[in-house]
Amino acid sequence: MGEELELVKQLQSNTNKDSVFKELVTLYKERLYWHIRGIVKSHDDADDVLQNTFIKVYKNIHNFKGDSKLFSWMYRIATNESISFLNKRAKQLQITNEEVINLSINNLTSDVYFEGDEIQLKLQKAIALLPEKQQLVFNMKYFEDIKYKDMAEILQTSEGALKASYHIAVKKIEAYLINN
């Protein structure tokens, strides 16, 4: 937490802003990439969204109040950027967000960065059938092992609601995997 506060202070005071920002990117790049990748599915799309996320963080760091962890604030930006990306892609292709995700999942088999097997693909298909919030909660808990407390901060909702969403998501995924 001390390291985070120090980075924020330096970024907000514009002291060595570019080199401090590089440090911030190094610290969070991988975690944010996998969070975004869990939502948009494709490596190239995740890379684009990650860049947009860091641009937003850079431009808006002076708005960071410190009432949440920097990590949570950045995750919120990454989540919103990912959802905006899916909405934009859906609009361009004139299809629903669900169809965009299904297209991405179908393309996973040809994605050189996807190392999953048949089970992983099946799991991704099951996750794609969940409502958006359940997808987010499931990915954050199952793949990233984010604590409900932090998740509540990122998604701005109660821990109880998140636990319920995760429980429902798990049941739906289990049912899908058993029946398909």
Automatic annotation (TrEMBL):
- Could you tell me the keywords of this UniProt record? Sigma factor, Transcription, Transcription regulation
Keyword Transcription attributed: yes
Q: Which domain of life is it from?
A: Bacteria
> Does the record carry Lyase as a key word?
no
Q: Where is the RNA polymerase sigma factor 70 region 4 type domain?
A: 121-173
Choose any GO biological process term that the UniProt entry carries and state it: DNA-templated transcription initiation
Per the record, the similarity remark reads: Belongs to the sigma-70 factor family. ECF subfamily.
Q: Which organism is it from?
A: Pseudalgibacter alginicilyticus
Q: What is this protein called?
A: RNA polymerase subunit sigma-70
Q: Which GO terms of the molecular function aspect are on file?
A: DNA binding; sigma factor activity
Report domain RNA polymerase sigma-70 region positions. Answer: 24-91
